[in-house]
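hey so u asked for the seq, here:
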Amino acid sequence: MTVALLNIDWQTLADATGLGGIYALMAVGIGLVFGVLRLVNFAYGQLIMAGAYALAFASERGWPVSIGIVLCFAVVLTLSLLMDRLVFRPLRGQTPAVMLVTTFAVAFLLQSIALLWFGPLGKIASSLATLNQPVTISGVDIREIAIVATAVAAFCLLVLVLLLERTRVGLHMRAAAMDFSTAELLGVRAGRVISAAVLVSGVLAAIVAVMLTVQNPLVTPDFALRDTILVLAGVVLGGMNRLVSATLGGFAIGFASGLLGGALPTNQSQYLPSFLFAAVILVLLVRPGGLFTREGHQAVERV
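ran it, structure tokens below
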């Protein structure tokens, strides 16, 4: 393990940073929904999978990349709103356990539909390969998607912070995150707040679908499943009580995954999840509230 870490080069660091940016975007979407709805959405990865299939569908028909990206956003946003309207909204008054099991059911339902519709072999989004070309900087070949992922993650987080801090909808979302019942009594429109959170989360899922598909053009029914599990661990690692800490946790687990994935020999890559989850457990034993949270921070503050 120590020898492998000594072999880390700038190429590995660049790829790890790009993967960390993608995982940070996923963490923002998951953390935002959790902040408003108190819902850990395990079906988030299946939204990304649906967007990836939309990209592969457009690629197989020879449509321009721009049309495929528009189709990806349309599919993911439609599924996000339908999921909230048909499944989560009727169960909103139920216990967290019921909501959690429901997200599992929705995730496996969407995965089964993809398996029946597209088959187990999956589809290939070949038209996106041009977006994964390397750029040489100081002798290091850095893939374009790594640069784009890092820049987009930082930009989206900045926009989201400005949305939460400087707009009326953002104010209502923060109020709902702190105390939903009291916020409703004070005039916050619950439906508008929830729809806004679901919509923003869906936009982020579509962006992640594009980036992950560029890196891995083969889209299968379990596409992004492993990534979602790692990001959920990262959100807990960073601290679910604030959006920024959850995002930093997502970036940290993505960066560590890319770093170890590039450093470990091929015949030891299967041990990567074990190393990551062992590290998460060790950190949480020392800081149960999260790695990037301040001591004594109130647990009720979610956004």
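Residues 10-37 form the longest helix (28 residues). The chain has one domain: 2-286.
lmk if thats what u needed
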